[in-house]
Design goal:
Length: about 525
């Protein structure tokens, strides 16, 4: 049994251990409180900084006009001020004329924005004249003479280019690239040759006489005192090769004038996209198109300017329903063709489905001198066109090959003839429309009356797709007579709803059938389809 002293010692040791445990717990708690106080202090400092920032007055912006010894001339809020630089920010060594600086409430510079960042007061203007240090620009209402800023001093803008200016500072800041015109104009030498076009030999010869002879034999033209035509109009139904012929002209000129194949330039203008809701913008873009053509032509390079869908831009003046924009667009084109600046080495080619809607002033001799009509392909022309897409290199059906003794050329000829017969034979199955004229007479039009080069190519593409599906299904594949005939039928049915029966006369003009006015159009495709289904059952 322990003595009283031993018991007292044990009790004191237990109390000491408990005290040490409490001390360790208090130390941990104290450490957590210290961390919390530090976080709270940092948060309070951050909040104070935010409050200080919110309490600061707003900073103004200004454009640096001139630099002096620790003094800067700044244009701000329509005024020119001479201001100082705050010592906390630094000196003016890093500033340049044209920089945008920040000003406090005392009009002292306290900072500078990133180079090239706008001040919020930049205007757009067009350059009229330019020299080494200054430019005369116009904003459409007046003309002003401004200094060239550092951003354009090394490469001054040319007359006609758009620039950003600061009127108050009296500076031309940067040259503005008008991307919209770049998007609307395709400047290249196309990869389309005359040999790629089928069924248009007569039209190709006429356009070669009109376009290529003046460029290839200019001396002969001068000796006969004959001026080359300024323009050519290609017109006819859709899908008959107007765009392909225009591209082939540019490639032919390039191939014949230089060995590199880059001796001409082809500028395609996307007609409908050139229209702009802002007054004068369409005219400006037309002007820029011809400026580019003249720049390239001055180097002796023949330039073809191709206006597709020409009727959408240059309609007969006074024919507008809700607006009359053609009253200014047409004169702009006429001034470019007949203007003081010549169009040497530049030929204009226009394409349209509705030549009757183009202003007569554009079509008169001396402007678009040559008019070439591209009719729908004849039976012979269809053979030529189909032969461009159905060649001996294409996989052919084994049964059709066997029927011609394995002769691929003979097989292709037979397939082409069968396809042409499916389209051009005047049989009841090929009846397409019944049209009623204003006199009461009716006429049945066949599928061949609406055939086009694009449609014939589509027929061959359909037959090739059928062959691919057959090959994937394990049935041999190859373009076959059955597939081509089926493709003709599918194309026939697919075009049933294309005639616009709401306004039959307009539809007839677009389709190339101009003559007595048409008042009603009835489709016959469905009737024949039902009859064929009944016979099959």
């Amino acid at each position: 049994m322990s003595s009283p002293e031993q018991q007292r010692t044990d009790q004191l040791e237990r109390r000491l251990a408990d005290a040490r445990a409490d001390a360790r717990q208090l130390a941990q708690t104290n450490e957590k409180l210290n961390q919390t106080l530090k976080q709270a202090r940092a948060h309070l400092v951050s909040l104070k900084a935010q409050l200080d920032a919110l309490g600061q007055p707003p900073l103004g912006r200004g454009r640096v006009v001139a630099l002096h010894d620790q003094i800067v001339d700044v244009a701000t809020q329509g005024r020119l001020l001479r201001v100082a630089v705050t010592p906390e920010w630094g000196d003016i060594a890093g500033l340049e004329v044209g920089d945008v600086v920040l000003l406090n409430e005392s009009q002292v510079i306290v900072g500078v924005l990133n180079p090239g960042e706008p001040s919020g007061a930049d205007d757009l203007a067009t350059v009229v004249e330019v020299d080494a240090t200054h430019a005369v620009v116009t904003t459409g209402t007046d003309e002003v003479r401004l200094r060239l800023g550092p951003g354009v001093l090394a490469e001054p803008p040319s007359a006609g280019e758009s620039v950003a200016i600061d009127r108050t500072a009296g500076l031309v800041l940067t040259t503005v690239a008008r991307q919209h015109v770049q998007e609307l104009v395709l400047d290249e030498v196309p990869d389309v040759a005359y040999t790629d076009i089928g069924g248009l030999d007569e039209q190709i010869e006429r356009i070669r006489d009109a376009v290529e002879l003046p460029f290839l034999h200019p001396d002969l033209y001068r000796s006969y005192q004959l001026k080359p035509p300024k323009g050519v109009l290609l017109y006819g139904p859709p899908g008959c090769g107007k765009t392909m012929i225009a591209k082939a002209v540019a490639k032919s000129l390039a191939d014949q004038l230089t060995d590199s194949g880059a001796g001409s330039s082809f500028i395609t203008v996307k007609g409908p996209e050139l229209l702009n809701k802002f007054v004068g913008e369409t005219e400006r873009q037309i002007r820029l198109v011809f400026e580019r053509a003249r720049e390239q032509a001055t180097a002796g390079i023949p330039v073809v300017v191709f206006f597709d869908e020409m009727d959408s831009l240059f309609r007969t003046r006074g024919s507008g329903v809700s607006s009359d924009v053609e009253s200014t667009i047409v004169p702009q084109l006429l001034s470019e063709i007949d203007g003081v600046e010549g169009l040497d080495n530049v030929i204009i080619i226009g394409a349209s489905n509705r030549e009757d809607m183009i202003d007569p002033a554009i079509l008169r001799p001396g402007r678009l001198d040559v008019k070439i009509k591209l009719d729908r392909p004849s039976r012979r022309g269809a053979v030529d066109i189909l032969g461009k897409y159905l060649t001996v290199d294409v996989p052919l059906d084994a049964a059709d090959l066997a029927a011609h003794g394995g002769d691929r050329a003979a097989t292709v000829t037979a397939l082409v003839e069968a396809t042409v017969a499916s389209i051009y034979d005047q049989v009841p199955a090929n009846e397409f429309l019944r049209v009623t004229y204003a006199s009461g007479d009716t006429e049945v039009l066949h599928f061949a009356d609406f055939a086009s080069g694009a449609m014939l190519r589509n027929v061959v593409d359909r037959a090739k797709k059928y062959a691919i599906k057959d090959e994937l299904a394990g049935r041999g594949g190859g373009v076959s007579r059955t597939g081509l005939v089926a493709a003709c039928r599918e194309e026939f049915v697919e075009n049933e709803d294309l005639p616009n029966t709401t306004n039959p006369d307009d539809w007839a003009r677009i389709s190339g059938r101009k003559g007595e006015r048409i008042v009603f159009v009835q489709s016959l495709v469905s009737q024949h389809a039902h009859r064929l289904d009944d016979e099959a059952r």
